[in-house]
Here is the input.
Amino acid sequence: MADALPPRFRPGDRVRVREAYPIGHVRTPYYVRGKQGVIERLCGAFPNPEERAYARPGEPLQPLYRVRFLQHDVWSDYGGQSVDVVEVEIYQHWLETAQ
Amino acid sequence: MGGLAAGPVERTEHDYALWEKRVDALMVLLHHKDRRLLTVDELRRHIESLGPEAYDKMSYYERWIHAITETLLERGVISVDELGRKIETIRAREAQRG
Amino acid sequence: MSDGPEHPHVHRNPPRPDQDDTLTYYRALEAAVRELLVEKGIVSAEDVRRQVEEMDGRNAGRGASMVARAWLDPAYKERMLVDGAKAAEEIGLDVGPLKLVVVENTATVHNVIVCTLCSCYPRNLLGLPPDWYKSRMYRSRVVREPRAVLAEFGTVIPDDVKIRVHDSTADMRYLVAPRRPEGTEDWSESELARLVTRDSMIGVAPADKA
Here is the structure.
C-alpha cells in the first residue's frame, strides 16, 4: 500500500476551494471553485486522479473529503430553500482553510 | 458540466445493445487489478478531450470505446497500424455478410 | 466469438439519420479492439462473455434488498449508513471494490445523486444506469435546480424539507435509502423490497406506495 499524505482537515472545518484552472483532467467541478464549505467527512486517501489520467501512479495518496456547500453560496440565483446543500468529493490539494 | 443551462430531462431509456455491453465489459476487464491496462481517470481525460460537441455527435458507449482505444494506443497495448488493419478486416467481413 | 446481429428484442431510440456511418464505425471499433486483445491473450472471448453476463445480473433489486433490510432492522441500517459496501456484502451481495455511501431520506431531508463530471453510479450494486442519469440535461441541472428537476420527475419536495444533492465527483458512489411507505407495518422483507425502485435509490422519486 502506497504512502498517504496526512489529512489536514477534520469534519466541521470551514474550507475554501482553490480557484485554479489548469488544463488536464481535474475532478473538482467548476461550480465550487472559489466557494466556501464545510468538511462533512474524510473519505480516505486515494491516488491522485490528475496524475492517474496520464497513467502515472498518483502517489503519495491524497486525502479525499466530502465538502458540504449551501446552495445559495454556490449559485447566485438558487431558487430552492436556504437550507438546501450540495455535497461534493474534493481532494485535499484543492482545499485551503477558509478565512 | 454542473450548472450549465440545459433543457428538460428526457426520460427515454434504451436496452443496451450487445456491442455496448461489450464496451462496458472491456472497460471492467482492462481496469481489473489482474491487468491494470487502463484507469478510469485516463478514460475520463480522453472523453473530456473530445469536447462538448461529442455529447451531440456521439452516444455514451461511442465515447467510451473511443476513450478505451485512445488509452490502449497511448500505452502501447495496440498500435495504430494493427488497429487500422483489424477495422479493415472487420468491415470487409461485414460487407461480405451482406 | 463472431460479431453476430443484435438481439431482435432490443429496442433503442432510432439513430439520427446522419449517424448511421458513425454507429457502424464505433461498432467496428469495439469489435477490432476486442479481437486484438483476444489475439494478444490479454482477454479471452469467454472473459468478455462472462463479464457481460455478470453485469446483466446486477439490478436495482440488489439495492432494494439492502433498503428493505434497513427498514426492518435499525442496527443494520446504522451499519449501512457507516459503510454501504460492507453492508451489501453482509447480505451476500458481491460488490467488488465499490466504495458506497448510503444516505437516508427522512421527514426533513431528501437526497438526490448525480455525477456532474461523467456519470458515476454504483454499478457494481445496481447494474448499468438509465440513459437520463448520464444525460447532459440531468447532470447540469439537478445540481443547480434540484427541486425543479425532481418536479419534472413528478416528485415535489415540500418547502420544509431540505434537499441534499450529492455529486459523485471522485471515488465514492452513492445510494439513497428512501423512506418506508405508510401502510407497510406487517410486510415481509421481500414485499418491502419490491417497493424500492431504482429511481428512488437515485433520489428522483420516493419508494412506491404500498
